[in-house]
Design a protein that fits this description.
Elements (H helix, E strand, L loop, with lengths): L9 H10 L9 H14 L3 E7 L3 E8 L5 E3 L5 H4 L6 E3 L12 H4 L6 E8 L5 E9 L7 H19 L15 H17 L4 E8 L2 H8 L1 H18 L5 E6 L2 E7 L3 H21 L8 E7 L8 H31 L12
């Protein structure tokens, strides 16, 4: 086994890592989603966001691995942070640096490793986003590009520790964070030639909830809808609160047909929520969905704009339909007071 040499400017690198104040913190969904997505896209048993400390590599996210850290002197990531691009080991048993490494001869039985360095604002490489398989394998150019995209998303989340990209109320990405993650998700799906769809939501008559029941109840409704999204979407999908009562979701590897199925599932989940929680109003939403087409959508902003427009078209159609029903009823009978419906 060959231990990785110490990087240049190691003191500066470690100081930058420690200033992030991320070591030994609790798991976070924004990092866990990336490692779950990596496992699914690359079909590997293990994906990690690994941070290389003075004497250990510590895992901010470990999908498929129970350990929270391993010694640095036996780490693959210690080698990966020495370079500027993906560090690739196709078969560790045939590599003189790793063939007798305890991580190869014992658990987790590393045979294949691919780690992309994670840089922060001062250029320091503090860790990696890496893939591990129990069998030898290789990555082609498209795969390498996708791994770089995922690493870039992880770098953005590290930067988000200093920049406000999360919505404090719902704990989803805010508009800035959603667009940052969305750009990478779109680029990755385009490179892999897989479909990607965007859903745009607006809670119906939300202002009336605040006016009638108070802003605390309005906050409860927003948090409830965010929870419904998290509980009924795949762990690798990108969720965000765009502002006010508007939300957006990027469905990776999903066509417009799949997006319609997701909307039906969400409508059912909202109905179940309303049946369980009697608070004087019902949560309801309007939604627009669109599948990425390269000829029409040049950016994540184009997708957002079209899905937003479709959502408002649906909302207007629903209001016009409701107005027609109300007018028809008013001609037959006197109006009656009913329960407020969102």
């Amino acid at each position: 086994m060959i231990e990785a040499p110490t990087p240049a400017r190691e003191t500066q690198r470690l100081n930058a890592l420690h200033e992030l104040r991320i070591l030994d913190t609790a798991p976070e969904e924004r990092f866990d989603r990336l490692t779950r997505l990596a496992r699914r896209l690359f079909r590997v048993p293990i994906a990690l966001v690994s941070l290389v400390d003075r004497e250990r590599q510590w895992f901010k996210s470990a999908s498929g691995l129970d350990a929270s850290e391993t010694p640095r002197d036996i780490s693959f990531c210690g080698h990966a942070i020495l370079g500027d691009d993906v560090f690739l080991i196709r078969d560790a048993r045939k590599d003189p640096r790793f063939f007798d490494n305890p991580l190869v001869t014992g658990d987790p039985r590393v045979r294949f490793y691919a780690g992309c360095p994670l840089r922060i604002s001062n250029g320091s490489k503090v860790g990696t986003l890496c893939l591990i398989d129990h069998d030898p394998r290789d990555l082609d150019d498209d795969d390498l590009g996708s791994l770089r995209d995922l690493a870039s998303m992880a770098e953005q989340e590290l930067a988000a520790l200093q920049l406000a990209t999360m919505d404090d109320l719902t704990l989803l990405s805010n508009r800035r964070g959603f667009i940052n993650l969305g750009k990478q998700a779109v680029a990755m799906c385009q490179r892999l030639e897989r479909p990607i769809s965007l859903l745009y939501f607006d809670l119906d008559d939300f202002k009336a909830v605040n006016d009638t029941y108070g802003h605390a109840e309005g906050d409860y409704a927003l948090k409830s809808f965010a929870k419904i999204l998290r509980n009924n979407l795949r762990e690798s999908d990108v969720l965000g609160r765009m502002g006010g009562d508007e939300f957006a979701v990027i469905l990776t590897d999903s066509s417009e047909h799949k997006a319609r199925e997701v909307l039906e599932r969400l409508e059912t989940a909202v109905s179940v929520h309303n049946g369980l929680h009697k608070r004087g109003y019902r949560i309801a939403f309007s939604a627009g969905h669109v599948e990425l087409e390269r000829a029409r959508h040049r950016s994540i902003e184009d997708l957002l704009a079209e899905a937003d427009a479709r959502m408002y078209t649906q909302k207007r159609a629903a209001r016009d339909s409701l107005a027609g029903i109300t007018l028809s009823r008013s001609r037959r009978a006197s109006p009656v007071t009913g329960e407020f419906i969102k």
